[in-house]
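Subject: for your reference before the review

Hello V.,

The reviewers asked for a structural picture of the protein, and I figured it would be easier to keep everything in one thread rather than splitting it across files. Below is the amino acid sequence we used in the manuscript, unchanged from the supplementary table.
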Amino acid sequence: MKKYLFTLTALSILSILSVLPGKAYADCTQLYGGGQTCNNTFSIQKVTTNGNTFSMSQTVDFKITVTNTGSQNLSSVNVVDTFPQYLNFVSGPGSFNSSNNTLTYVVNNLGAGQNQSVTVSGKISNSGVPVGTTCPTNNVVGTDNNGNINNASSQFCIQNFINPTPIQIGR
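And here is what came back from the structure prediction:
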């Protein structure tokens, strides 16, 4: 009987704990445009600024905004923007690493409540994009000087339609 009561009590405690949210999720907020912020020191957001649907060889512009949501100055936020397949780096702050398709830059001395935005541009490849509509996601991750990490993403679509060459029949 004691074994039965112990087992029943243990199962009851486990079932209650399984429905309680963990700390990892309690402080997270979903962001418009994709991503989430999971701490109270900063948020990062990424959106396309010149549309959502593009053709081959067009340039896609993104706005990345880092906001200090805390009450103290952030001395630095390291930002790593990973370019997806079919998008080639054109411009943006910091340094671009072509071997892993990442742009890295640092936001320095961001006061409480302040934000800093940058524009990053990429050009859609001329070849290799599948026929039809392909929608890659561009991801960015920020890490502040305290080790807090936030991420955001922005999805855009590439339309690659084959224009058939007219064939003249008979003369």
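For the response letter, the relevant points are probably these. The chain has a mean pLDDT of 81. The two ends are 98 Å apart (CA to CA).

Happy to draft the paragraph if you're swamped.

O.
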